[in-house]
Amino acid sequence: MGVLKKFEQRLEGLVNGTFAKVFKSEVQPVEIAGALQRECDNNATIWNRDRTVVPNDFIVELSTPDFERLSPYSGQLGDELAGMVRDYAKQQRYTFMGPIKVNLEKAEDLDTGLYRVRSRTLASSAGQAPGAAGPAGAPPAGRPGGYGYPPAAPAGAPPMPPAPPPGGRPGGYGYPQPAAGQRPPAAPAPGGRTRYWIEINGTRHQISRATLVMGRSTEADVRIDDPGVSRRHCEIRTGTPSTIQDLGSTNGIVVDGQHTTRATLRDGSRIVVGSTTVIYRQAEG
Predict the structure, then answer these.
(1) Domain that holds residue 14
(2) Which residues of 149-172 are buried (b: 16+ CB within 10 A; e: fewer)?
(3) Where are the compositionally biased (Pro residues) regions (predicted)?
(4) Of 120, 149, 166, which residue constitutes the final position of a domain?
(5) pLDDT, tens digit, for every residue of 239-285?
(6) What is the pLDDT of residue 9?
(7) 148 pLDDT higher than 70
(8) In the chain, how many domains are there?
(9) Residue ending a domain, choose from 68, 100, 120
């Protein structure tokens, strides 16, 4: 069972089903959980072959209506989201510099249904925290370890790079935010045609035709066994650029953190259907 599915099931059992109401809001907790996973992936910093450090302190910015819906449950929701990040990090073999925290904040510039995730790597100031990597100890003010800075390297560790690792997407504190819904294009390999595929729970599905339909039906090109997925849920069309179109599904689609009915896809785009995350990939050659 995937990390997001386990997270969603835990939420359903909290506070005698109170979260069932929250799930009807414009921004669903499972969307935030998926965005936190992406934040870890996009800001992972490799120290050595056995150690990849990811952010541990997260702020989720919500529109005023969504914040008002979710804020009464912010403590429990923050704990559950932190637990999801911990489970995902364990699955990906990521490590932390300190305890994991997830806080909700209101952002006046966001419309209903939109959100932003910011993160930083913050060292623990009191002993080794579970999941932390290396010796604890908060850095001095204005030094590495704050928002937008890589974590300070412990004695004997290789120096940290001054910016995200090659291929990493800017967007952590201190780095320029990409335009909404955009991701940097993949570096093309010299020559050859473009190959397209999707990855679901570690399984690769090649896209060999111009279109690919995902859904719960056995007639779909890629069948997704998820009760939150419609029989014909959405369709990917490959090209320049590739796009995804919702096919009138019950629960809709989320692409790179945005609820939408149609979106442009780029290499690495994450699509959430039901409680399943689909990663779109393309490469030259």
Answers:
(1) 3-120
(2) bbbbeeeebeebeeebeeebbebb
(3) 151-168
(4) 120
(5) 889 999 999 998 889 998 888 899 999 999 999 998 899 999 999 86
(6) 67
(7) no
(8) 2
(9) 120
